[in-house]
Amino acid sequence: MIRRFIRIMAIAGVAGAAGALFAARPEALQPQALDGLSADPARGEAVFWAAGCASCHADADAKGDEKLVLAGGQRFASAFGTFVAPNISNDVDAGIGGWSTADLANAMLHGVSPDGAHYYPVFPYASYSRAALQDVVDLRAFLATLPADPTPSAPHEVGFPFNIRLGLTLWKALYLDSDWVVTGDLSPEETRGRYLVEALGHCGECHTPRGALGGLQTDRWLAGGPTPDGKGRFPNITPGALDWSKADIAEYLNSGFTPEYDSAGGHMALVVENTAHLPAEDRAAMAAYLKRVAPVK
């Protein structure tokens, strides 16, 4: 009787573990999701700059064409450990040269690697999840035109328990949400700005405070907060603190100069290098959206 009970409990345990693993499997695109979409690398270049790929994956001191060598290596300290940007160059072995378009889409929209593992959300897929599939298709085509670099990706320096990636299943259940943060009756310009700020530009990843598990506190959207290394603060860029005009914001995203003739520094300088590549109407759209965000004191 006891043996039978132990056997039943063992079977139940195995079944429970299998069920948990099944539930923890990363979500991925349906095979037909990309059907009918054709790639345009020229459009993909605009997506590349809007998404800020070079800001993390190129060398922090890169200039000019060096920005297009995406060998990774930048380090990002946080309370959970230090994350290292990987090589996403066109190298087949060290980078993503062997990735399909679906592989890139799964990474950006679902935070899933080609081998089915969860990515850490330091890769801002929580924002990219709002991106249009057409933009991902075009981005993949542009990335394929960039140089290959054989530099191996360095491992993240993350200790227990954060090195157990299955735990990211819970994180995604709590925080991976492709709904728009700012809703309501937006103009076409504001709607375009929302797409650039909330999705491709992933501005909320820095300018929105985070909770204990690292999820964005969207009730204080773009209200600023401490930097991940704890050594500074990201500014509040809602109308409750940023009183710049729409033209002031658009100019800052183009030149990096503030209305007080100060200039962007730190990682924001890299962001401005990206937004300066965008059409003027896109920078104006981002400014229009920021003027519509709920003010936070």
From TrEMBL:
Keywords: Heme, Iron, Metal-binding, Signal. The keyword Transmembrane helix does not apply. The keyword Transferase does not apply. Residues 1-23 form the signal peptide. Pfam families: Cytochrom_C. This is Cytochrome c. Residues 39-147, 188-294 form the Cytochrome c domain. Gene3D superfamilies: Cytochrome c-like domain. It comes from Albidovulum sediminicola.
